[in-house]
Fold each of these.
Amino acid sequence: MDAAQIAGLAPALDRYLAHFDDCFGRSEPAAHLRSYVKGQLSDLPRKSVEPMALAADTPPRTLQQFLSGANWDQGLMGQQVRRMVARDHAHPHAVGVFDETTFVKKGDKTPGVKRQYCGASGKIDNCTASVHLAYATPDGFIAQLDAELFVPQDWAADRARCRACGIPDEVVYRPKWTIALGLHERAIANGVRFPWMTFDEGYGLIPAFLHALDDRGQRYVGEVPSNFVGWCKRPAVRPAGSRRPGVRKGPGSRTPQLTGDSAVSRVDDLCRCSAAFTAQPWVRFHVKDTTKGPVVWEVKAARFYLQRDGLPTRAHWLIVARNVLDRSEVKYFVSNAPGGTPLEALLHVGFSRWAVERCFEDQKTELGMDHFEVRTWKSLERHLAITSVTLLFLACTRRELRGEKPAPDGGTDGVPASHRGQRHDRRLVDEPTRQRAAIGTSRATVAIYATQECLGGRMPPAKNVAYA
């Protein structure tokens, strides 16, 4: 992106931000939103309130008050983001992604901060966490639909500490998977439809989470841990009212019951020992290309039955995938997709979690999402809401500029690379010759694409929306 393109974005940004004017009762806070978003989009090395305010020739206390005390509706702002995505960027093969991120912080005043595992630093650290919902389409559009702060149990139990930083009394501890379900529910209420959902094993290990998505009619392909349990062969179930074999007298069971020898098994044991897996060969799939070369996985899949209330569910899929270049790296996926769904489609969804990682990378390296220095719940909520607004503008701009000459600093899709130069090219590119040379085999390898053959049906081009 050259200087002329950057300068030309100002009118488009003003038109875009006008969609959020209804969130404000007065013109002053609406103007502060523009200052905040422009600060996030700027090249400031530190994008906390003070440098952004000074760059906008605004007193820092004014912009701090905009976050902490001004009368405006951040909930309505989030609704508007979701409605705009539903209206302008809906895609029949979009994938929703649940994930969480952490922010390293000093001290003990930031809402929800505590010593816990921190993905940002890769160790136990003092940090706060939030749960996010991203929306990705096969043509490269990625947006963050919603985000919510996680309140640890020890925080929720200390209401005096909560009140000190403005956490409302109605905000209590909720596991991250229940927060994720709430984000999904809000998105659906605002018109967003998810043909598919995916998530990592931190969510997939919770059977109640999987059952809740299934009850909503939501298709998913989610990673599960190796000790997740179920059956590859559906166990026999005695109907309610029947007696156990050999029992002639007495009332029958009040509920359906499993017959004997129907214990569940771990998925790693099933994939290693069950005939449903041992009788089939590994099939190689070219998942993606990165700056380090192609990523190829070997895959097997079979029908799978989860356990719910002690009984088997309807048939699901169990997929095992291992990295061709490092066979110790094994992933397990469970999906509630119907029978006959192409395996390529399931893998495309299961390996789509990079989209939310791209969201976090853009928000942290480009927009300063982790630069906040606020200490109140409302300020942090508003910071996350505004960052979603800014990221959506970035996604729309990237889409409009796609196809133009690449930026001279090595960016892709017509936008510059991140400040830290950490991005990989995540696009699924077919390079079978280089791929076979890299893995040292002549065996045919299937490439995973968001294509008609992969996802079943013609994929219409996504809308190219300009906020004029």
Amino acid sequence: MGEATSRAGLYPRGFSQSVTWRWDLIPARELINLNYGRALKADIRASGTVPVYGTNGQCGWHDQSLANGPGLIIGRKGQGPLGVEWCESGFWVIDTAYFVTTLRPDLNLQYLYHLIKYIGLNHLKDGTSNPTLSRDTFGAQLFPVPPPFEQEAIARILGALDDKIALNRRMNATLETMARALFQSWFVDFDPVRAKLDGRPPAGLDSDIAALFPSRFQESPIGPVPQGWEVKPLPEVIDVNPSRTLKNGTVAPYLDMKNMPTEGHAVKDVVPRIFGSGMRFQNGDTLLARITPCLENGKTAFVDFLKDGQTGWGSTEYIVLAPRPPITPEFCYYLARSDAFRLFAIQNMTGTSGRQRVPSDCFSQFELAVPSAEVAERFGLITRPWMSKIHANIEESRTLAALRDTLLPRLLTGELRVNTATQAVEKSL
């Protein structure tokens, strides 16, 4: 165990037995107490700003708190991963989770958050049908306990990285909301046309953009649409599963379904793999998950991660959408993200319950009001920088997360001193 001493207990998961610890390893039962949450069914929660946590993280809101913040919440039962959450404000914990209080004044709660999140909880669960994290089992887990000033410094370093990652996530959510709202306004609700029809200047639009929209509607098979816009079946303007050349045995970028995003458009990992059969795609395409529950969770991806001229491939559970003029890649992507499009896809699913799929030929029945080339291109010009920023933020967050995950175990063992870690973080932020 090196220089450190330890009491009998469970060795920290994720660390080699040969690690030289600079800090004592102490059983959790001597450090913290796990407090049971209290039942709070969704139908009796009052509207409010107090986050409610369960075994997998936040699961709602309420108007009263069960515990004061800042606080640490950990999951207690269930088949899936148990959550480890940090909340700055007051919060409520339901009866499938615990909230943590310290038994010693020299313990930094935020340090414990990072420590428990790294070591994990799932290996401590007991049972099979509804595995549970018991107090006794958790109490046997050994935790390294550095001096208070070291705990504070470690929490500050890791917290700075987490804060920047959280800021990027919030920024991306805002940009995604803006883009989807603009698509809804221009291409679903036709707000600029309605405003001009009423004699009002379209809200929030420069005069040159407003001039691109007509001032009246025309009747169509799908109801009133802007004058001059044609209504066409989707496959006439967007290729569904277009032909792409990729020979068997070719090594090409592969995207696994699990790496499809549900928020934002950037995928997690693309790896080279020998092509045998699957859906093929190129930059500018949109990938849509066609199997439940992936579609219901909003899994879509915008392909902007390939080298010029490169073809990638993936699961046959994708539908590939490739826009043709006047439809732009950005229009195609946010069409796939729109509520109306996803509802149409879900309603056309076929197959057995739980494994239903969207047949690609159903989109011949989806009729689309096709905007003018000028309006479609202007939407692309506006949203393209937002999508680029979303992508850049996700890539930065991945880099920061990798740095955090590299620093954390070395800080926990005492191998890396906080001054060195602080310098590394300051260079990255």
Amino acid sequence: MIMREGERWICSNPACRCEVDVVIASKSADGTNPKCCCGSRMRKPYRAPSFRPIGNQDELKVVLEKFSSSVV
């Protein structure tokens, strides 16, 4: 898993809940989430999806083309 600068990671252990702010980007060797000092896996905090209006007709056309190609 790639850890990017500025991200926050939280321990998945409810008893620990350690938080880490990434100051230098890194990538784990095995591609899994990093582990906390307590041994539990860390995860990024949940962020609800945000919706935005489509700005113009060109953007709408691109979105519809992507949607129609993924449905088929």
